[in-house]
Amino acid sequence: MHVATGRRTVLLASALMGSLVLSACSGGSGSDADSKAEARVTVTPGGGKDVKLGSPISVKADGGRLTGVEVKDDKGQKVEGRLADDGASWTSDSKVGPRTTYTVRTTAKGGKDGKGKESSATTTFTTQQAPSVNKLTNAPSNGQTVGTGMPVSILFDHPIDKGKRAEIEKALTVTSEPKVEGAWGWVKDWSGQDRIDWRPRTYWPSGTKVSVKGNLSGIDSGEGGWFAKNYTFGFTIGADHKAVIDVPSHTLTMYENGKPVGDIKGSAGSPVDPTRGGIHTVRSKNADEVMDSSTIGHGNEWMLDSKWVTHLTASGTFLHSAPWNKSIGVENNSHGCFGMTTADAKKVYDFLQIGATVEVKNTTSTKQTDVGNGLEVWQETWEQWQKRTALK
Fold first, then answer.
1. Containing domain of residue 355, as a range?
2. How far is it, in rounded angstroms, from Cα 245 to Cα 348?
3. Collapsing DSSP states into helix, strand and coil, what is residue 361?
4. Residues 289 and 272 in one domain
5. Can you give the pLDDT at residue 102?
C-alpha cells in the first residue's frame, strides 16, 4: 500500500497483529505548522493475514482528529463503532470475527484543533480461522408476533464454557418500546444444549415492540468455539390472550385482557400421570400430529392421530383434540395432556399464540418443571430467575 504525502510516496510496512501507521506528521512550528500538519493514524490490528482473534478494531489519530472511519467485512457488512468525544480515537462495538477480511477506511485532519491538512487511507487485514464456529438459534424469529409471556430464547449449537458466560451475556441487549424490566438467565435446554433466555419481570404489555442485539462476533465461547457474526432480530407482542386450566373441574378458561371469554371442557392427566402444574408458555403448535406413546416413556402403547395440537413442555404436555376419549369433561384420564373435542381444540389452538401462557391449577402433580423443558421461564419467581445470571 502507498500513501501520498506532498510529492513523495511512502511505502507503509504492516506487521501481523501490529498497528498500521497510515500517515506521518509534518514539521514546522506555530499556527502555520498546525495548518500544514497531518494526523498520524494507526489501525489495530494492522494489515496482514492470520490476525489473532479476540480483540476489537481500534483507530487512533496522533496529532489530529479523525473525521471519518468506515469499516466493512468481506460480505459488505458495516462494522459499527464509537468515536471518542475528542475525535482522537475510534473503537468497534464488537471484536473481529474468524476468517474474515476487514477493510478500514479513515479520514483525518491534522493539528491540535483538527483544522490542519486532511488525509485519507485504507488498510485491510484478514483474521485467523477458528477451530469451530458457534452459531445460535433464536426465538421468537425476526418479525414474529407472539404472546405476552414469550421470553427471548437463544440456543447455542456448541457448548458455552461457564467462564465465558459473563462476556457473552454482556454482549446481548434487549430494548423495547415501551421499556420493560427483565433479565438474562442461563438455561440447560431439554436437548442438552446451552441456552440463555431473557424474560420480563412480569408479562409484556400487548403491542410492545422488542429489539434484540448480540455483539457476539469474535467472542470466544470456550472449547474451541468462536462466534463469527453479530445478530439482530425483533418481534412484536400481540393480543393479551391467556388460559387457565382447573384440573378438578375439567375446565380450560380463556382470558382476553384479563377477562374470561369462554370455557372449554376437557380431560387432564389421570392420578397416575397428572398434568404438570404452574405457568407454562406455548412453545409451538401443530395442526396435525401423531401422538406417539414412546415419546413420553410409555413404550408402544398407542399411536393416535390428533389435530390442533398446542405444545407446552418439550417433554410432552400438550393441549390437543382427543376424539378417542369418551370421557371428555367428565374424567381426568389422560397421560398428562389436556384433551378436548376436535372443535374445542381448534378454538384453543386459534386463541393462543406462540408465547401465550397456560396456567394449570389444582393438579396433584408434584413435579417441578425445569425451565429448559420448553419455554418454562414462568415456573420460577422473579427472585429465582435473577440468580441465573452470569453477571455478579
1. 241-379
2. 12
3. strand
4. yes
5. 96
Q: What is the pLDDT of residue 135?
A: 96
Asked whether the beta carbons of 41 and 34 are under 8 A apart, the reply is no
CATH number for the domain spanning 344: value is: 2.40.440.10
Return d(Cα 319, Cα 303) in angstroms, integer: 17
- The answer to whether residues 252 and 242 touch, using CB atoms and an 8 Å cutoff, is no
Q: Look up residue 190 and give its amino acid.
A: W
pLDDT score, position 113:
80
Q: How far apart are CA 211 and CA 214, in angstroms?
A: 10
The pLDDT assigned to 12 comes to: 28
CA dist., res. 39 & res. 63, Å (int): 5
Please say whether the beta carbons of 160 and 194 come within 8 A.
yes
The DSSP annotation for 157-213 comes to SS---GGGHHHHHHTEEEEEES---EEEEEEE-TTS-EEEEEEESSPPPTT-EEEEE
What per-residue confidence (pLDDT) applies to 15?
A: 33
What does the chain come to in residues?
A: 392
Name the residue among 72, 71, 226, 49 with its Cα closest to residue 128: 49
- The SS3 call for residue 150 is coil
pLDDT in tens, 152-170: 999 999 999 999 999 999 9
Say how far apart CA 212 and CA 184 lie, in whole Å: 12
Same domain (yes/no): 262, 338: yes
Ramachandran angles phi, psi of 345, nearest 5°? -60, -35
Same domain for 354 and 280, yes or no, is yes
Q: Give the contacts of 139 (CB within 8 A, at least 6 positions apart).
A: 152, 153, 155, 375
Residues of the chain with pLDDT under 50: 1-18, 20-30
Q: Among 175, 153, 158, which residue's Cα sits nearest to residue 228?
A: 158
Burial pattern 27-39, b for ≥16 Cβ within 10 A else e, equals eeeeeeebebbbb
pLDDT for 305? 82
Measure CA of the first residue to CA of the last residue in the chain; give whole Å: 47
